[in-house]
Amino acid sequence: MPSPADYAQFEEEYLEGLDPRKRAKALISQQLFDDIWLVLHAPGAQCVGSPQFRWWVRKMFILALPNDLDEETPTDPGSLVPAMVPLEAPDTSRQTLPVVAHDGKRLAVREQIYDVLCVAHARAEHGGRDKTMAEVKRRYTWVPKDLIALFVKYCPTCMAKRTPLRSPPPTPASNISLTSQASVLAPTTPQESPCPRSRT
Questions:
Q1: Residue 174 falls within a domain, yes or no?
Q2: Which residues, in sequence order, are CB contacts of 144 under 8 Å at separation 6+?
Q3: Based on the structure, what is the number of domains in the chain?
C-alpha cells in the first residue's frame, strides 16, 4: 500500500487539479461532516452554515441506522428509494447511533479515506482500480474514482505487478575473437562437413 505520506501528497495533487469551486466539497473533511451531522440532527437549526449549505445537506444526505444501510448489495434497481429509513429520533432500543448516508452508503470522511482504501484494496487482492472501487462502493460513498485510481497507481505491490520482469542482458562475447566468431557463424559447405557422407 502507498504510505500515508505518499497518499497525502497525491490526495493534495488530486484536489489541486479540481476546479476551485468543487474543492470544498470534493472530499468531506471532519469539520464539514460535523456541520452536515448538525444540520441533519437538528433540522430546524439555523445556526449552521448558510441557507444554501443547509439545503445542499438536506438534498444530498440523510441520517440512517447502520442496519438500514444497503452496504453489501446494491439497492433494488426497480426502486428509486434507497434501502434505508430516515431517522426522526435516535432508536435507543438498538443502542446504535445513526450515520450520515448518501445513496444508501456511509459517507467517507477525508481523514479516514486512506484507511478505507487500504482495506478495500487488500480485499480486492491488489486487483486494480475497478475491483478496489467496487470494494469501496460496497460500503462507502464520496470516495472519488480518480483518487482510487491514484491510490492503485502508486501502490508498490501493484507497481511491481505492472513492471515486466527483464531478462538478464546477454553475456558479452568479448572473450571470443572475431575470427572464431566468424567461423562459428559461417555456414558449412558440404566439403567442410565434419560428418562423413554415406554413399548410397
A1: no
A2: 14, 26, 27
A3: 1
Q: Is the pTM of this model over 0.85?
A: no
Question: φ, ψ for residue 140 (rounded to 5)?
Answer: -120, 160
Q: Within a domain: residue 157? A: yes
Nearest to 39 by CA among 18, 21, 53: 53
CB 158 within 8 A of CB 152: yes
The answer to whether position 140 is within a domain reads yes
In a domain, residue 9? The reply is yes
What are the mean pLDDT values of the chain's consecutive 10-residue runs (200 residues total)? Answer: 94 95 94 94 82 94 86 39 38 70 94 96 93 95 95 92 66 49 47 51
- Which of 131, 103, 105, 104 has its CA nearest to residue 117? 131
Expressed as residue numbers, the domain containing 4 is 1-17+111-163
